[in-house]
Backbone:
């Protein structure tokens, strides 16, 4: 079915919105809907990338251009969720709950965040509770989209690529708060070098909130408000776990590496655009790529041996509808823990190398252990859920 079955007049589009697609239109409408999801997330991602850099240069403004760009994506999201949820287009019950719940959480978080800024002032840190609600809402939204697209689209190379792109958006959402350290470390360095990238009014406001003049302590509190343990623990425990989930969900070789490399390529493009237009610079997390490669190698190693009970080649959502076999669970968990250990070690080594070559945010290397614990537990859960099942 092609897009030729889509409405061609305004009245027909209005009718489609009211009644939903008929059987002949359904495949084309599903394809169009999920293309619009990609547009929406692209707008939101561009807005969030610009927003982080913006907040390291100027005071916060509810109607700042990055916020408006993100809002444009959110408007599309709301329209799509209402349409899909009302007419059951390209979703099942779980996908619908994830989409609706995630969107509702995100929308509720917006006034909470605005109120938080009104009460607490700058609240520059990306790690605040009100900001966390935005990330959590987006995460559930993306999980719903990933599942809905997968179950409503016939198997094809396009399904693999678009599913990987959706997980790429998920990775960007997960890594957004850690960009605070990646911008903050350079912001602090620029201040100490006598050439601050933040406008004076921003630094004065940040210092005034803690009752100080603009000095090193005030700028450090603004630029690096969380401890050095947060960054390594988050990159391993959250970002690498996202890549494990993506690899298990999509099932294609080198999924984790491709997503990580694409994310880093995007960050480099945005780095050039933002730096070229006078916005503050950041340090992209190149260390992520080492862990991604290890994740793919672990999946490939056991798949190549035919040990599909350990790491399945393909683990789409439809695999969750059959009964579980009791065999192979312990080896699957052992592989998950081993994979987590190797991926953590590779990421820690890559962090040391990146710090030596171009620098990193402050890192407490012992905190990689916290990340390992989260990654091992999450990977074990994914392995338990996605290992092959015996049909009822």
Residues:
């Amino acid at each position: 079915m092609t897009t030729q079955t889509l409405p061609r007049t305004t009245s027909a589009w209005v009718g489609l919105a009211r009644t939903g697609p008929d059987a002949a239109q359904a495949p084309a409408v599903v394809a169009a809907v999920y293309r619009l999801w990609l547009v929406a997330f692209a707008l939101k991602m561009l807005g969030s990338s610009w927003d982080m850099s913006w907040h390291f240069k100027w005071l916060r403004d509810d109607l700042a251009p990055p916020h408006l760009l993100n809002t444009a994506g959110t408007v599309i999201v709301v329209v799509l969720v209402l349409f899909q949820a009302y007419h059951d287009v390209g979703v099942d019950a779980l996908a619908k709950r994830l989409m609706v719940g995630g969107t509702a959480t995100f929308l509720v978080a917006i006034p909470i965040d605005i109120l938080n800024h009104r009460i607490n002032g700058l609240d520059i840190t990306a790690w605040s509770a009100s900001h966390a609600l935005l990330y959590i809402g987006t995460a559930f939204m993306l999980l719903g989209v990933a599942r809905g697209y997968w179950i409503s689209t016939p198997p094809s190379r396009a399904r693999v690529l678009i599913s990987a792109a959706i997980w790429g958006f998920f990775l960007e959402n997960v890594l957004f708060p850690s960009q605070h350290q990646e911008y903050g470390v350079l912001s602090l360095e620029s201040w100490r070098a006598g050439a601050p990238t933040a406008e004076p009014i921003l630094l004065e406001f940040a210092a005034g909130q803690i009752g100080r003049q603009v000095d090193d302590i005030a700028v450090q509190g603004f630029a690096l408000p969380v401890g050095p343990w947060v960054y390594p623990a988050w990159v391993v425990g959250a970002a690498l776990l996202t890549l494990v989930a993506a690899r298990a969900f999509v099932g294609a070789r080198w999924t984790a590496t491709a997503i990580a490399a694409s994310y880093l390529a995007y960050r480099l493009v945005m780095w050039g655009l933002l730096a070229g237009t006078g916005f503050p610079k950041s340090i992209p997390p190149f260390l992520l790529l080492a862990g991604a490669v290890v994740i793919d190698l672990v999946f490939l190693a056991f798949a190549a041996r035919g040990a599909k009970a350990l790491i399945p080649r393909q683990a789409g959502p439809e695999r969750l509808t059959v009964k579980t076999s009791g065999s192979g669970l312990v080896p699957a968990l052992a592989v998950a823990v081993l994979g987590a250990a190797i991926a953590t070690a590779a990421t820690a080594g890559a962090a040391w190398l990146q710090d030596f070559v171009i620098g990193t945010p402050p890192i407490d290397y012992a905190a990689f252990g916290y990340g390992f614990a989260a990654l091992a537990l999450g990977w074990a859960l994914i392995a338990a859920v996605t290992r092959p099942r015996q049909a009822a």
Summary: Residues 304-315, 318-326 have pLDDT under 50 and may be disordered. The two ends are 33 Å apart (CA to CA). The CA atoms of residues 248 and 348 lie 23 Å apart.
